[in-house]
Amino acid sequence: MAYHGVELQNSITIEKIFSIHYFEYMSNFSFAGESHNFWEFICVDKGEVGVTRGKSYTILKKGDLIFHKPNEFHDVKATGGIAPNLVVISFECNDDAMYFFNDRLLQIDETERNLLANIIIEARRCFDCRLDDPYLQNMPLKDPDTFGAQQMIKLYLEHFLIHLIRRYSNPIVLSKKLPKADPPKVTKSNSDAEIFGRIVDYLESHLTTHVTIDQICKDNLIGRSQLQKIFKEHCSLGIIEYFSMLKINAAKELIRTNRMNFTQIAEHLGYTSIHYFSRQFKKVAGMTPSEYASSIKAMAEGEFK
């Protein structure tokens, strides 16, 4: 029997990557704008920004995504409200399929959010530069980089684009005449995911307080060992480590909003002292609150190093 292989065709091929950024902007940040002969997209992870593309102006909020086609002028400005976090990726792709993204405002789903997160993770593994410098024009490769990191970026980004086109081109519409089915049994993994989501919501609602594991267990009717196991499985962190990360992310946003000093931020987030807050901030962020504020300020003034 003779076998005949199938040569697989690409619908979208990423030729080059020019930039992969995850920005934490001040609430008054403004980027004057530019145009270039390759594609770029901006996705809002937190907060909101105003974006000009060509002659149109759009406010983007959490989960919103827009593309800038080659040679289209674009700029971005924080709106003065919540300090924004943005994913910005620019790349070369010459396939006609890309023109699907012209003049569209899209919203990403959970799959696409995870693909973006994976791109950022792989970028840190192969590029020898910070990903939060808005003035960076070249991304030097690490020597050596992590095996497969460059290819994974290409695969994740192509998957991201294909998933968007499929989802917006072929929305799933359920027939009104579908027969009713018995609800499926909830598996342990689904149950754990629901518990994890519920606990995360609980933690986010208690960011301004000090909570203990015992209190979390009591308020959420869950055992200590089960709680720790679920968090280790879902995020590879202990629950207090995770809570600390949430607090420091909130602190970063407050610093960038520039409406409280460090002492006020520490008090607002339930820290017992400014010194303890500073130690926890450095432990999570790798720099002190002052260093972080200086870095963000330099970024806003175009003096980022």
Written description of the protein model:
The structure is a single chain. The longest helix has 21 residues, at 149-169. The strands form two sheets. The chain has a five-stranded antiparallel β-sheet with strand order 1-8-3-6-9. A hairpin with a 2-residue loop joins strand 4 and strand 5 (56-61). 23% of the residues are buried. It has two domains: 16-169, Sandwich (Jelly Rolls), CATH 2.60.120; 188-300, Homeodomain-like (Arc Repressor Mutant, subunit A, Orthogonal Bundle), CATH 1.10.10. The protein is an alpha+beta fold. It is built from nine helices and nine strands. The N and C termini lie far apart (63 Å). Helix 1 (110-126) runs antiparallel to helix 2, helix 3 (188-205) packs across helix 5 and helix 6 (239-257) packs across helix 8 (274-285).
